Amino acid sequence: MSKLSTFKYVDSHMPNLIFDLQTLIRQPSISAKNEGIEKCSHLVKKTLEKSGIKSEILKIKNAAPIVYGEIKSKQNPRKTLMFYNHYDVQPVEPFELWDDHPFSGKIKGNKIFGRGASDDKGELITRIKAVEAHLKTNGDVPCNIKFVIEGEEETGSAHINQYLKKFKNKFSCDGVIWEFGYVDSQNRPIIGLGMKGLLYVELSVRESIRDAHSSLAVLIKNPAWRLIEALQTLRDSNGKILIKDWYKEMTKLSKSDLEIISREPFDEKSFKKEFGINSFVDNLHGLNAKKALVGGATCNIAGFISGYIANGAKTVLPGEALVKIDFRLVPKMDPKKQFHRLKKHLKSKGYGDIKIKIFHGESAARTNPTDPFVSKVKESADHVFGKSILNVSNAGTGPMHSFVNILNAPCISIGSTYMFSRIHSPNEFTRIDLLKKTTKCICLIMEKFGND
Fold first, then answer.
1. Cα–Cα distance between 259 and 244 in angstroms, integer?
2. Which pTM value belongs to this model?
3. C-alpha torsion sign, points 269, 273, 277, 278
4. Within a domain: residue 265?
5. Same domain, 216 and 292
6. Which of 301, 327, 362 is the last residue of a domain?
7. Pick from 351, 318, 316: which is nearest to 229 by CA?
8. What is the domain extent for residue 14?
9. Are residues 377 and 244 located together in one domain of the fold?
10. How many domains does the chain have?
11. Helix, strand, coil abundance in the chain, percent, nearest 5
């Protein structure tokens, strides 16, 4: 098999890739609202089959469908590469901040806009079209290929463990290309070898049965103030989490981890400019900033709701307040154990009356940088992009631990998502040039993986 033939196919069929991606973007699939999930799963199945990939829809009770695709290699049925992706997307709000309709798939120059353009429909299409390129030019794939495409990733992949356990034999593989990968400001792909874990909770307080006139604040307690006081006990102004034993199991970054981190470029100036900020938490910079992205635990307020939040003034005393918090976890931190520590902490500080609801817990995962799979991915990325960067762990979270733990397969992130592509925000976009390069990179990864 020749990479030149597959590369030429990708070049000549980019209009088809763009059309298929626009079609996927135009189908809403918001898992948080269960909007369009079923329809999108069937559209993804159709897209796989259009590219010559045998597919089926898998279901378990009360879960979004998984679209499963498989191609068996004639020349090398011994090795199996899996592509894990998701077809669900984040909500589009605030709607008024979008320049065009959130599901337009509109093209402006080198960019395609719309929710899911990068995360994750843009990434998914590069995998599908890479397989198509091999099938159309060679009549075969260099190794067995499997697709596992879920519809709940954006809400925490609540049922992925059940799917992996139920279909463990069907999903068995030797390596997993993860659902995304960042490309930095200098067009270098960042090859992620891990992901942080997550604990997502909601704290709520009700002080009265309804909102009241704010003049009654001399008599009725304000639940927002109580939550604010409780939140101040969770972390200090430098981001250090103050919950007892929070860092107890946390292990230090290894020598090899630090070597990889030290070599990874990080353009602080461009990063700060993109987000309009002057400094980082705790005034971090240089190596310490990079270490925090890879191995730092966080306590983040994702949303605070209480009282009147629309335009103008309303003198109201809210009856209830709630806050949503996400904690990023690093290896060895167990989400269940951390949740119990949070509950114990609030009770010990006199806030035992605060209700706590857990939405999601996910452990962190990492792939050993010495795994042969890593070198194959990096060689492919270097060839197509000119240079790539190894990253010990992405700062974000996904169900990578489940795949590593249940399927016992190394997982690596590589993809087309420009790091400032506004994923999870209004005006999300993907770059066409990066879609093309990533599709070629996936073609080459398949080839190197199969020639082992």
1. 31
2. 0.88
3. positive
4. no
5. yes
6. 362
7. 351
8. 3-193+367-450
9. no
10. 2
11. 40, 25, 40
